[in-house]
Design a protein that fits this description.
Elements lengths: L1 E6 L3 H10 L5 E7 L2 H11 L3 E5 L7 H11 L4 E6 L4 H9 L4 E4 L3 H13 L4 E2 L5 H14 L1
């Protein structure tokens, strides 16, 4: 069973994400409402995957992802947002996220994203330009 931490500043979104995840495949080990809590819980709970909102108070998802990936490189992060800009996509993967799911596509894409990321692959919502994603990932790969 894959251990999941859900991070979003809106309780209703956290409940919605929880409802999308089949209990036989995924165990929700915790929830947080900002990036600072996410970092603390990542250390305490050691989830396999974190579903993280991008825009939150106290500390946003990009900052938290960067810090979590530095401290806990085995924890995978799927960022979750409404935004599709090319600069944001670049920032998400530069921060160390393995997946990006648009909130508008969550019902159809979240399970695919979690399974893909769990297999150590990258997932991006189909609505995001795949050429952009390929360029960003290539750029990141050449920097490492």
């Amino acid at each position: 069973m894959v251990r999941i931490l859900i991070v979003d500043d809106h309780a209703v979104v956290r409940r919605g994400v929880r409802a999308l995840l089949p209990s036989g495949e995924f165990e929700i080990c915790g929830e947080a409402e900002n990036g600072q809590e996410a970092i603390r819980l990542a250390g305490d709970l050691r989830p396999e995957i974190i579903i993280m909102d991008l825009s939150m108070p106290v500390m946003n998802g990009l900052q938290a992802t960067r810090m979590i990936r530095q401290s806990f490189p085995d924890i995978k992060v799927v960022l979750f947002s409404l935004h599709t800009s090319s600069e944001l996509v670049r920032s998400i993967f530069m921060a160390g996220a393995q997946g990006y799911v648009l909130k508008s596509d969550a019902e159809t894409d979240l399970l695919k994203a979690l399974n893909t990321v769990h297999e150590n692959k990258t997932y991006v919502s189909p609505a995001i330009d795949p050429n952009l994603v390929a360029r960003v990932l290539q750029q990141i790969g050449s920097q490492n």
